[in-house]
Amino acid sequence: MQNHILDYLSETVKRKPDKTAFSDGTDALSFQELSDQSRSIGTWLHKEGIYREPVVIFMEKHPKTVAAFLGAVAGGCFYVPVDAEMPAARIDLILENVCARVIICDGSTFEMAGKLRFGGKIVLYDEICRTGIDEQALGGIYDAAVDTDPVYVVFTSGSTGVPKGVTGCHRSVINYIEQLSEILGFGEDSVFGNQTPLYFDASMKEIYPALKFGVTAYLIPKTLFLFPVKLIAFLNEHRINTICWVVSALAMISAFDTFKTILPAYLRTVAFMGEVFPIKQFNRWKDALPEADFVNLYGPTEGTGVCCYYRVKEKLAPGQAMPVGRPFKNTEILLLNEKNERAGEGEEGEICIRGTSLSPGYYNDPVRTEAVFVQNPLNKAYPEKIYRTGDIGRYNENGELMFVSRKDYQIKHMGHRIELGEIEVNVNMLDGVKMSCCIYDQKKSKIVLYYVGEAEERDMAVSLKEKLPRYMMPNRIARLDKMPLTANGKIDRAALQEKVQGK
Amino acid sequence: MQELLEILRGLHPDVDFENCKTLIDDKVLDSFDIISIVSEIYEEFDVTISAEYIKPENFNSAEALYSLIRKLEDEE
User: Fold this and answer.
1) What is the DSSP secondary-structure string of A76-97?
2) How are beta strands A476-479 and A446-452 bridged, if at all?
3) What is the pTM of this model?
4) Does B18 touch chain A (CB under 8 A)?
């Protein structure tokens, strides 16, 4: 039985050493190069005495970044990806949480890494990727691994202002890749086009299936997602036939009427996730690619990748909602009502996840872990964890799960999961801010920040950029003379929500 | 031009749009901005910027974007 994610690579490299594994259109690594470089990195870690601990990978989107991830795992460690898009203040919070002893950088991030609050070693990928491979040491590390060991820690927004590190382990990742491959029909002829940044677990959809099937995954440069015609031309140039993108990336292409200028010539599988697909845009995709397989994916990072799917066979009528669908095999969804019982037919409940896909929890964070990774209330007999997503759902008449709303102030914006509370905490720390509140304008997909204080709107934007990642930046900042309050003195979100809609 | 600068400043109050010529090259604008700009240009100028015109050279500066709007207005 496979119990290690690197088994995918060690099998494939024997069959297809010279095949391109990862490419960004300019630079590429073959499976042999990927294997050699990752084992060099693993050996280097071993020599440094770094074992069973986090290795921070601070590199731009590039094939070598994947080799660095796998290198950390080859060395018996787990990777913690951070990105130059994150402001230094946020990376510092991540470093404080994981207490890593090493950061692996590339030329573009090395300087920034030197300025971080970090006392450990900062090394360049290119300098350690040629370390002579110590087969025996790596073999010993491999033999000692168990499938509940972590593979990665990826960070997601936290409402307290401190990001949460979600751990993922071998068996959850293997389970995920096996189920996903079956559902989306991945195979030896797949050609992947990766959209999501590598510091999200969403990028596993291309990384590990590429290793499993010995096929190429193109890591599409981020700037192409600003220019839809060039993006489709890239897909066509590389004969990309399989994509799993956030909805906003797909919707942008169709919203600009790109298909009147250029059509994807090879696409046959279009999976999407991160938010609800606007019906009008989905139908344009369906019209453009009537033969393609369209699959809606759903699932939180805490459930390792995604864990529910819905195959959309027909165009949708205006106003019709797209189901979240059904869980992957080997995952159960429990819909629990307020009494912690299974929700009845048509009744709303919290979507909870049970099974191997569950993350072991948040890294170095027992308090927040215990809040949402809880004993299955339906099982009184032995310890069994479920994850409470905070998503409210219900079953439709076909028994398919439908997403209804959130229990809290978490939003999905341009495919990113954001706690509005995290933005507010950072705003409230700025000079000249007395009070603030963030509202999400669902209709226009805009984060609107209201605040009270003497700070100028322009200065707010400048200082916030030092604290928040780009995707969490408010799209509109408005100063108020006075914050609307409810009868018991809390900020009146409903009133602000109305203000946003009225504008 | 003033209307366009206002649209751009609405997205990034801290950027000097009058002089910056590298809005794309220096990653000042992201895909969300492009979507917002195109839809606000449509509302303000009644000009549709279709996919074929969404190219780096047309979005690198306010000036380039403005001449694109002018050109599309003339075509209509």
Assistant:
1) T-EEEEE-TTS-HHHHHHHHHH
2) parallel
3) 0.93
4) no
